[in-house]
Design goal:
heterohexamer, A: mainly alpha, 10 helices, globular, B: mainly alpha, 2 domains, binds alpha-D-mannopyranose, PTS_IID_man (chains A, D, F), transmembrane (chains A, D, F), PTS system mannose fructose N-acetylgalactosamine-specific transporter subunit IID (chains A, D, F), GatZ_KbaZ_carbometab (chains A, D, F), membrane (chains A, D, F)
């Protein structure tokens, strides 16, 4: 708040540049290890350049954004906007450090991933596609064109709106972080995030076993999947997920290796007749 | 219907633009160009049979209408579905003389889509893995303070990953057309171990993604509880995601208030309370 | 079967007693006299065919068994159903020689009931609107301190609203009997815009009532959340109202305790805590 | 508590008079604008006359009851009883003012409306009717007579009980209001009220669209209602309700005008084929 | 097939080991020896027809697969099912020459099992009631400080209860075999008042058990609320017990935090707060 | 904590003896009045003998265990372990009295009964049986043998593990009891317990009425059970349960008499046609 007169303020052009980099580049250099980290850094670059004329300061500032980042790129735009604003506050001498910025990013990225994946991938896109598919029955291009126009407009202006919301909200985001209310808000968002992630898992993922035991008379006497469902619907899905979580978090296995392990497990499962997707051409 | 080299190359280009880690951004690349409905339009234009393209796209889109890719895991790859699957399905349907709008054509399209979509996940992970190379360049740049190079790391180099794992496979597979699919189907029968494993893995991969999200959310053991409750609401009660979100908001409000009432020393900033200050002064 | 002027007038009187804003009080007027089951008994007695009256009442009652009128909005008006609908249905059934206990009679009764019930909502809102006149008298009386006049405002003047919008319509419509219904059915066919709109509005009106209740409950935006959760429990999970209430009680207990733990200074009044008093004295 | 000796106490006759006025008159002069306000004033009149011999005091006291009031008249009886008691306390010099009384009325009327509409209109009446209908099959008057007797007894003595419960509870109702516990109890009742109102909306109101799009082959390719249900079951119902709420609360449109607007919307909806109740004689 | 006295006595011995208040402990006695599947094995060994024994056991086990005995109430007694029901069913099936693995044999076994299982509850309560005698010995011993005698009270004397109400009934009923069952079925027809009452009571008894549990849990009226919510989740929404447990954990976490935030004076013991100590010293 | 040097410590043999007594004898002298009280005393005897060489002290110490006890014997093993440890602490002069011990037992036994009955009797046993039944189709003894081995191992080592967990946890169990966190944990366990007991009731108990009223035409016009279900599914079950609770808790009727009363009620119900299990041979 002190010396607001000589304070640095990001101009709209810089902000738009940062936003466009996120819009186009959040996932371009995606890897299982760092995910959106480079997309994020690329988006913050214009901001840092503007705020810190001094090259050394820029290099120091970018460090905060080298931490792992991943979220739903659509809704996540708001986080980029918030950091733009926090960075501006930091450049103006407010008591914000890289840690504070990263706390915010870490606290929000998970919940927003859950909520975003559910609302965008799981709800909004299917609705738009559902409507458009109707229009394209019979081979008409109408539906496809409608989808392209409607979605691109929604996505572009929606994300742009979120970016600037985040930027303007940023100042509060600081008080949002420090103190009790910040903790409370993050806790609340965390609850929503984890429940939604649970919902996403149950809605879109379904690991099942095909194991059936047959009696002498050829009748099935044990349908393992049914038995598991009567214990807890979706049990295998939860178990596989928690197993992956445990590998990555407690055993520090990387995502790639975890996936390869799943390949091995699947292979063995297929061989012993535990798994069988049951598809045919 | 045949596919020329130039057509195959155009398909390859679109393939680069639209996977999950795509060159045209998530909104335009993955969510627009990548969706089979749009892919049908584009393939129809490129191959010169709009109606057939759209019909194939519609059939495949129905299968993948709600594709979520949590935590960067995909169980079916839209690039392969839209720019390998659709062209090949078009060729197959045209060569068999099927009615493009009929049921058999749609079924053929779906089975080709499922096949290449799951096989295509291999391409997806290949791109993401190759990107580790460019990212290693990036870390060096950050370390050496060459920040300007980050732009190339994020927007430039990954084209190479895509050239190798999107452009080339798409171009070759579509050019060699029906032969390729037939070869693939023979090599990898659905009831063979390879395809069974592939589809089983495909069904499990999103678990890794969810696990990545969990790693971001879970701090202590009790944090698993809301996750499991959300799972239970959807799996046991069939609540959809919006309804789960509504219910979760109630718990969020409660948790917010519980946190705010903790300690009792620092009042809600909007309602400053007299006596608190006194306590502060005591210390 | 015909209806004499004197019978029609008696029906009109009962109509005054039983709408939602009725002259015989909610419990006796609306919930008792107004229900088609009771209306069937009364109409049967007035028109001299008890069995037929009851049969019509039972048929109509089944349709409106759980009529809620949240926030003063009605989607079907019991006065019209019971004291216009039942008499007309009785006349129609008797004149067509139908078996009063048979299925066709019941169906005829139901369709007449639905028709006049929804049309009757217009009468309901007319009464409520005319009451604004007597209420304006009342405000003047309060302002001038003439409190004794309030009794007339509440119990006297509204008879005029009912004379005009309950008594007269009922008397005329029942007297002119079958002609009126036929005329109405011809004038307002079910697949015409007028009736479609009427029924659509009828289905929506309770939303206004719920909105009025919400206005009384909602203080801040987050207050919408329990409302939506209650809606979700009933709409998505099919919980009935008693079950929703049971679940809501758990959240109520939690909220109570959260509120009680806030601030932490003023303990629960039933458990006085030593230090609190000290604090109080500090101020 | 001080000078309880010379305190004014309402006698049973006055209380019964007040109760009967409510029992018979809660809705007689109902309008969409003031709803049960006049019924309430009429019920409080005997109380005020008894407590304040002085006419000026009566006129002053009635002011508290000119505020908007609406609730479920059955359960709401308890509120009338509580105000009788609070008014008595005020007449005896306790520190209760009109505002306190109105806070209580405003805090309770909404939740009690929700709970009452659900329990009385939505549960109790349907059960009684269901039983009675059975007895009247075949045109027998038995069921109707049973219903009349059973319900009128329940209603009269039930409400009377509530009135006097409220009156005796009234003293606590004061401590109920001031301080923390009061806030907590009102919050708790509010939660129940809003969840129940949500349940009432979902159970008894159902706004649906009939919009269907047909493909070239005559098959439905878009059933909008199904699509909406897959987003959020009951979406249209919620939207219409929140729209009405917004009109009345934020735009200060009166209930009557809101209803007229719904007529217009329905008309347009019917004309464009969005709405169609689909009934026939 | 007949049953000799020695075989009948062996069945009687196993009957002592396996009721709910059994001499072989809950895990080994009730949950293992008592289950019809295991009972079928044992009866098969004793009576010399393993296959038939197992087949009967499997049929009866299916009926009682999830027998809960909350608060010491049983609605069907495993001792009677396994060691009276299975032998009698075996005799009946063998004498009628039925295929042991066929449907009729299974149905016969089930009906015999249900019959003796419910009748057997009388035996169960008889044992538990007779144990009151030994317990009265125990109280005297505690009072007189003769603690060593408690071992006999818990492990010795109850054998007498079982000798009378497990051993003898089992021995006699199985020895007199089919005659006994037929006599029972004639004496107590399913549509007679006695059996109807017995089964009705059997269905209600667990309520007493749940009530005993409630007595242990419920402190104040609001404690009924989570109980009713749990009931609602299972009864109205069909959630199974694991899912109910998951949901309850969320409320448990919330309640934990609410309790921890109460008072605000004593911080969570893991996060000691300075001022607390000061406050403590003030008092 | 003071004089830990000369502190008494239970040796493994004593603990095992106590555990085995519980494992074999928790229910042997069961009655509806004292339930597992004697089983509990028998299990504590070895502990008390070891800790208090003096006979008088033993007699004094046993008093704490004369109070009513009942829980799920499997999971409840953890409580026995905890009391072993608390008793040891008490023998070492820590400020723990019989009351503290009983508070803990009373606070945990209910919830653990609910959770245990649901997880062991309602979930684990049915699963094991389900799997084993499959193996025994066709009259093979395999399933039965598998069940015996699997279950006895799980039960024995599971309970043993719980006993020693409880014993080691015991020290914390003290701080667990006193102070705020103890209250909070017991509250939390209580919530789980009561919800689970509610779930057990709904899942495994189902009191229904067979009352149907028939019209002149022979058609059912009142199916009371359906009507009750539409009010609140499982209503009769809840009512009977709460009635039993009320008898036992408020009217101090013993469990035996409550059961006899149910017999009378059932008899009358059967006679008037309210109850009818509807079974046949
Ligand atoms: O799950 C969060 C996020 O993870 C990755 O970044 C991608 O798979 C995105 O599509 C997804 O939204
Ligand atoms: O909803 C509360 C209340 O509002 C109005 O007063 C009437 O419609 C009543 O019937 C209703 O109970
Ligand atoms: O319900 C707790 C408990 O009560 C009694 O002790 C027995 O019926 C046990 O089987 C049961 O686990």
């Amino acid at each position: 708040m002190e010396n607001t007169n000589n304070s640095k303020k990001l101009d709209k052009r810089t902000l738009l540049k940062s936003f466009h980099r996120w819009f186009w580049g959040a996932l371009t250099c995606f890897s299982q290890e760092h995910m959106q980290t480079f997309g994020y850094m690329a988006s913050m670059l214009p901001i840092l350049k503007k705020l810190y004329p001094n090259h050394k300061d820029q290099v120091k500032a970018i460090k905060a954004y080298t931490a792992f980042f991943n979220t739903n790129p659509m809704l996540g735009t708001v986080i980029v906007g918030i950091t733009a604003s926090m960075e501006q506050a930091r450049a103006n001498g407010k008591e914000i450090d890289g840690e504070t910025i990263n706390d915010m990013r870490a606290g929000l990225m998970g919940p927003i991933a859950g909520i975003g994946d559910s609302l965008i991938d799981g709800t909004l896109i299917p609705i738009l596609l559902g409507i458009s598919l109707g229009m394209s029955t019979g081979g008409s291009p109408l539906g496809a064109i409608f989808y392209i126009v409607a979605w691109v407009l929604i996505a572009y202006f929606g994300q742009r709106f979120l970016y600037f919301r985040g930027y303007h909200f940023g100042d509060q985001a600081v008080s949002f972080l420090v103190g009790k209310q910040g903790a409370a808000i993050r806790r609340a968002i965390g609850i929503v995030g984890s429940m939604v992630v649970g919902g996403v898992l149950a809605s879109w993922v379904n690991v099942t076993t095909s194991l059936k035991l047959y009696g002498a008379n050829g009748k099935v006497f044990l349908n393992l999947q049914n038995k598991l469902d009567s214990i807890y619907p979706g049990l295998l899905t939860v178990i596989v997920t928690l197993f992956c979580w445990w590998l990555m978090t407690k055993k520090h296995v990387s995502a790639i290796w975890t996936m390869l392990l799943l390949v091995v497990i699947s292979l063995i499962g297929v061989l012993v007749g535990f798994f069988n997707p049951g598809l045919s051409y | 219907m045949t596919i020329s080299w130039i057509q195959a190359a155009m398909l390859g280009l679109f393939a680069c633009l639209c996977s999950n880690s795509c060159m045209a951004g998530q909104a335009v690349g993955n969510y627009t160009i990548g969706r089979p409905l749009v892919g049908g339009l584009i393939c129809g234009l490129i191959l010169g049979d709009l109606q057939l393209g759209i019909a194939c796209g519609v059939a495949m889109q129905l299968v993948y209408i709600a594709l979520v890719t949590p935590g960067g895991t995909v169980s079916a790859d839209v690039r392969a579905i839209s720019y390998i699957g659709i062209p090949l399905a078009m060729v197959a349907i045209a060569s068999q003389g099927l009615n493009p709008l009929g049921g058999s054509a749609a079924n053929l399209a779906k089975s080709v889509g499922t096949l290449v979509g799951t096989v295509g996940t291999v391409l997806y992970y290949a791109v993401a893995t190759m990107n580790l190379v460019w990212q290693s360049f990036g870390w060096k740049d950050v370390h050496n303070g060459k920040l300007n190079k980050l732009t190339a790391v994020n927007f430039g180099w990954p084209w190479i990953s895509h050239a190798i794992f999107s452009f080339l496979p798409t171009m070759f597979l579509t050019y060699y057309g029906a032969t390729a699919v037939t070869a693939l189907r023979n090599a990898l029968p659905m009831d063979g171990v390879a395809m069974k494993t592939l589809f089983t893995v495909g069904g499990m991969l999103p678990c890794v993604g969810i696990a990545i999200l969990l790693r971001q959310i879970i701090g202590r053991t009790t944090d698993f509880i809301p996750f499991l409750v959300g799972f239970t609401l959807a799996a046991s009660l069939g609540l959809n995601l919006v309804s789960v979100t509504v219910v979760s908001l109630l718990f969020a409000v409660i948790m917010y208030e519980v946190e705010m009432s903790k300690g009792g020393k620092q009042g809600n900033s909007t309602v400053p309370e007299g006596p608190n200050d006194d306590d502060e002064e005591d210390i």
